Amino acid sequence: MSKVKKDDIQHAADIPEESVIPSRKKKAPKPAPPVDNSVEPDRLADAGDTVTVEYIGTLPNGKVFDKSTSEYPFVFTIGAQQALPAFELLIKGMKVGETKTFAISPLEAYGIWQEDRVITVERNTFPAGEHIEAGKQAKVAFSGGTEQVMKVVEITDTGIKLDGNHPLSGYTLTYNNVTLTKIE
Question: N or C terminus of the chain with fewer C-beta within 10 Å?
Fold first, then answer.
C-alpha cells in the first residue's frame, strides 16, 4: 500500500469543471426570479404618486365609518384632491409596507358641525308624490339654481327639517393600521 502524500490530495477547487461527474440526485428547484418591483424599496410616497392604501376608519365611539382592504383598496393620486388634504399629508413620506395609525381633527376633515346648516322648509316645498323619509337624503334646490344634498332629520305635517352638514362633520376621524401597499 502506498502512502498518500499531502500534495497528492486534490481539492474541489482544483478539479477542472469538465471532469466533474454530475450527481444523479435531483437538483433543488431554482429559486423564483425576484418580483420586478419598479419602486425602490426605500422610496417615499410624494406629490404626484398614485398610491394604494388599506385602513380601517373609526369614529370616537369606535364605529367604523370606512374600510379599505386588499380586495377593495383605496387608490388615489397625492395632490389630485381625491382624498382629504390631511390624509394625503400623512401618507406622504411613507414607504411601501409601512403601517401607522393617525387621527384627523374635524377642522382638517369635514369641518365643525354648524347649526346654521340645519334648516326647516315647508312640506309643500317638495312635490306631493315624492317619498321623503327621516334619516335619508334629499336633493334640495335653492333659489339661484344651486342644489345640495341634505339629510332629512325630521318630518312634520307642515315642515321638513334638513341638515346640510357633511355626515362626518364634527368628528375626529381615526385611521387605524394605515398600510401603504403600492406606489406608482
Answer: N
